[in-house]
């Protein structure tokens, strides 16, 4: 662990909004702060492919958007980003391609616009969802 490694770690912490947390004991961190430390750890490795299971878990809304924006930037820069999301509105905002699992063995796969539709989402979630557009963004709300 030399100076270059420390610089990478500090840059990653800064990127996830944890600048100044370098000396904090992990036991004193909130669940959201721990999640951002985990994301920072990934960033230090500079992967070309991110495999993420609920990267917005434990994060408040501000950091959910900030972290998913960060992964969108990585995707735009040519990295692969594969993530599991249970929040259909985050998927509608960030995903290019979607694999929708319905919990009963059913699978739908395709572009975001093909898969994220009222009928398939309602069937998958077992509750009717309605699609709305607001300021050019698609949102889904339970009926």
Automatic annotation (TrEMBL):
<dbReference type="InterPro" id="IPR003439">
    <property type="entry name" value="ABC_transporter-like_ATP-bd"/>
</dbReference>
<keyword id="KW-1278">Translocase</keyword>
<keyword id="KW-0813">Transport</keyword>
<dbReference type="InterPro" id="IPR027417">
    <property type="entry name" value="P-loop_NTPase"/>
</dbReference>
<keyword id="KW-0547">Nucleotide-binding</keyword>
<dbReference type="GO" id="GO:0016887">
    <property type="term" value="F:ATP hydrolysis activity"/>
</dbReference>
<protein>
    <submittedName>
        <fullName>ATP-binding cassette domain-containing protein</fullName>
    </submittedName>
</protein>
<dbReference type="GO" id="GO:0005524">
    <property type="term" value="F:ATP binding"/>
</dbReference>
<comment type="function">
    <text>Part of the ABC transporter complex HmuTUV involved in hemin import. Responsible for energy coupling to the transport system.</text>
</comment>
<feature type="domain" description="ABC transporter">
    <location>
        <begin position="7"/>
        <end position="57"/>
    </location>
</feature>
<dbReference type="Pfam" id="PF00005">
    <property type="entry name" value="ABC_tran"/>
</dbReference>
<keyword id="KW-0067">ATP-binding</keyword>
């Amino acid at each position: 662990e030399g100076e270059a490694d420390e610089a990478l770690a500090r840059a990653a912490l800064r990127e996830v909004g944890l600048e100044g947390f370098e000396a904090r004991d992990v036991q004193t961190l909130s669940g959201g702060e721990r999640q951002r430390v985990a994301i920072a750890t990934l960033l230090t490795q500079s992967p070309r492919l991110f495999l993420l299971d609920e990267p917005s878990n434990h994060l408040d809304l501000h950091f959910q958007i900030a972290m998913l924006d960060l992964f969108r930037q990585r995707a735009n820069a040519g990295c692969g980003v594969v993530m599991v999301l249970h929040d259909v509105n985050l998927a509608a905002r960030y995903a290019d391609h979607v694999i929708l699992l319905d919990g009963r063995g059913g699978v739908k796969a395709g572009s975001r616009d093909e898969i994220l539709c009222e009928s398939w989402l309602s069937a998958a979630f077992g509750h009717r969802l309605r699609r709305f557009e607001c300021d050019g963004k698609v949102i889904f709300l339970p009926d």
